[in-house]
């Protein structure tokens, strides 16, 4: 069994998975409550399923990008559990979690861009095609009206709270926006299980989330560049 902790946004969620199947999830949309909620919610989740902590085989956490405070709390909690239980730590990209949630229910979309709000007109994002191939990796981007000009002929779906900034701002004839999608622990199961089977674990001493704090420079006119 793998316990998944998702804390990269203001929404805090936890889920228990067995071989990628979600057994239960708890979600709390209460900003700045991650630190106080986490210990008790973990206890409740395991108690409700009558699962002992000793039954856990790994802890999966979101490794960013996202809220600095949220990621720090999730990482500290995950590391503490792994150290106490002597089990491995698995990290999952926050944007990949959003893709896992939305991809099964979109059929007529050529490209998907998950977005997490950063600051002002800045978002954390990546871009994939409908087959799941990564066209642009995780990065911080300052939004401009021509951001998706290279994909002007194709339907593109923006998901996440960062996508809300694009409404009426991004100039694209086939743009669709789903702003109420956020990373959820429930959607970490398959991704975490795949890493578990491969033995793709983090070093408890050295691991730090991907805060993307190094991004401070101004982008070019089109931050995605020419493909």
Could you write a compact summary of the structure shown?
23% of the residues lie in helices and 28% in strands. With 227 residues, the chain is of the alpha/beta class.
Characterize the biggest β-sheet.
5 strands, mixed
Order of helices and strands: EEEHEHEHEEEEEH
Largest sheet, spatial ordering of strands: 3-2-1-4-5
What is the residue-averaged pLDDT? Answer: 91
Principal-axis shape equals: elongated
CATH fold-type name of the largest domain:
Nucleotidyltransferase, domain 5
CATH superfamily of the largest domain: ATPase, nucleotide binding domain
Report strand %.
25-35%
Give the class-level CATH name of the largest domain: Alpha Beta
How many strands?
Answer: 10
- Tell me the span between the first and last alpha carbons: 41 Å
Query: In terms of structural class, how would the helical and strand content be classed?
Result: alpha/beta
| Structure annotation, total helices | 4
Q: Can you tell me about this structure?
A:
Strands 3-2-1-4-5 form a 5-stranded mixed sheet, with helices on both faces. The radius of gyration is 18 Å and the shape is elongated. It folds into 2 domains: 2-94 and 184-198, ATPase, nucleotide binding domain (Nucleotidyltransferase, domain 5, 2-Layer Sandwich); 95-178, ATPase, nucleotide binding domain (Nucleotidyltransferase, domain 5), CATH 3.30.420.40. A hairpin with a 5-residue loop joins strand 1 and strand 2. The protein contains 4 helices and 10 strands. The protein has helices spanning 34-48, 68-85, 94-102, 189-198, and strands at residues 2-6, 12-18, 21-28, 58-62, 89-92, 111-119, 122-129, 134-142, 156-159, 175-178. Residues 215-220 have low confidence and may be disordered. It has 227 residues and is an alpha/beta fold.
